[in-house]
Design brief:
heterodimer, A: alpha/beta, 2-enoyl-CoA Hydratase, Chain A, domain 1, 3 domains, seven-stranded mixed sheet, elongated, B: mainly alpha, 0% strand
Amino acid sequence: MGAERKKTEQDDLLNELLEIRKMVQRGGGEARIQTQHQKGKGTARERVLALLDEGTFQEVDALMEHRHQDFGLDQKKVPGDSVVVGFGKIDGRMVAVFSQDFTVMGGSFSEVQGQKVAKMLDLALDAGVPVIGLLDSVGARIQEGVYSLAAYAELFWRNTQASGVIPQISVMLGPCAGGSVYSPGLTDFVIMTRGTSHMFITGPKVIKSVTHEEVDFESLGGAGVHSAKSGVAHFTADTEEDALRITRKLLSYLPSNNTEPPPIQKPQDDPYRRDKELNRLVPDDPEQAYDMRQVIERVFDKGSFFPVHEGFAPNALVGFARLHGLPVGVVANQPNSLAGVLDIDSSDKIARFIRFCDAYNFPLITFVDTPGFLPGVQQEHGGIIRHGAKIVYAYSEATVPKIAVIVRKAYGGAYIVLSSKHIRTDLVFAWPTAEIAVMGAEGAVDVLYGKDIQAAEDPDLARKKFVAKYKEKFSKPYQAAASGHVDEVILPEETRPRLVTALELLKNKQGSSRPKKHGNIPL
Amino acid sequence: MSEFGQGLTLSGAGILITFGALGVLICLILILKVIFPARVKEQADFQPTERDLDQKMGLRRRAAAAGVAVLLSDRSCSETGALGSILETPPGEWWRQGLDRIHGKE
């Protein structure tokens, strides 16, 4: 009889927990969930479950509630508050995840939300697992005043502490305004969803009142703007599902933390593959453009190139790829856009990517074809010196294996900064089409033989002769190879097996850097 | 005559004609050899000059060098070298030591 009563009491306790769980699952209520669905958006939990491997999600702090009374907050208590936090697996690897719940007070960032996310970040840092934030929030919870701001600051501090230790990914699935944008801004990768996600410091109304500029949400801080103009977004997704798919794919390249090598996949492509098409990819006319992406896709494992920052500064290409299953970071100029010139945006894009690769042990492979830095008052006044210096700094600082392939033009400062031997690139290969010079032939001839050309009977003919003489010396890689500035001149078709061999040599490379608090990168 | 007998006769005739022709050809070769003997002595008298030898050696050297070059080129990218096998396993202790040094663990 006693045992039966005990069993009934236990059942009540278990049922009570199940009831609480049901309540937690309802979030901000059925009506708000419907509204969220009508907008084409999922709920916080639906998103987490869609992101993670089935049956792996372990929620924590599902019962935390806020403790504030002002402005009617005492009437608005929801278990778990405005964020879902926990751990789970993606492709069998552990990740930490938080997902802002828009159905609970618009996903506003409360003191409790801050505490939950901070606890999860601390655990992720201790465990050495990546953190993924699914963001959909109106911003700080105004009713909580400084408590909400303090919570944000705690998050920003942790984002900074985790930077370079565990990969952090922000998936923007709704609004993110005001100071809250600095959390995704501090993370390694930002994925924005077209149409539903927006990021800005001040919204259209404030902008209108201050500067009298009229702008809508999409033009101000939509996915298109941040992926093409500001460079805040690294990836753009068409739908939520697409954003989560990109997140999973991105994670397949990343190590869990900075003490691990990137995850090796079973090789799917022939390491000996020589693509004859590479021999004809660079046009005979040095002024003619071509698609560097073709080079990358033909050299690395088939279908493995995963471009980052694709819409931003298209004159440079950066992204992850696999070489015989090993993830590497790829940096390249894109002659198809602005002739592959280096400008402010492409410098920022390249430098940031290099630093990520170095932090997380990705070998760096650089394909060079650039006429140099973009001339112009706008660029000079915009700080091309400072921005361009970031590339030199990033390459010089990087201790991971560094391999460069000079495909065509490597002129002037751009030759130096783009992974030259002198900034400690381990191996520099050049294609027979490589041109390594201080500047292009036409400009150089003007400087070197300007007076002679003017004095000549036929200036045009003299000019042509001088250009031909200059090209004979510098439009081929053999002078650089003879002096050891290029390690080997290779056939384009040989690039893949050569890179595989080079990576095999450098796989266990020991990097070295002098002890210091931190360097002073020209930000 | 039966069909079998006819077939047998025709086959025999065919074989006889073939081998007969072969015998005539061999006889012809032997007769011609007797009439026109080979000038072996003249061939044996030939002495290559130093220049001929140098040229011959030069050609041999060049052929050998070309062969080695082709071999090296093939070997550097040949499918017998287990290219990429080192990349299939995680980096080793040497790498770990370098990483520890950078992270200030030493």
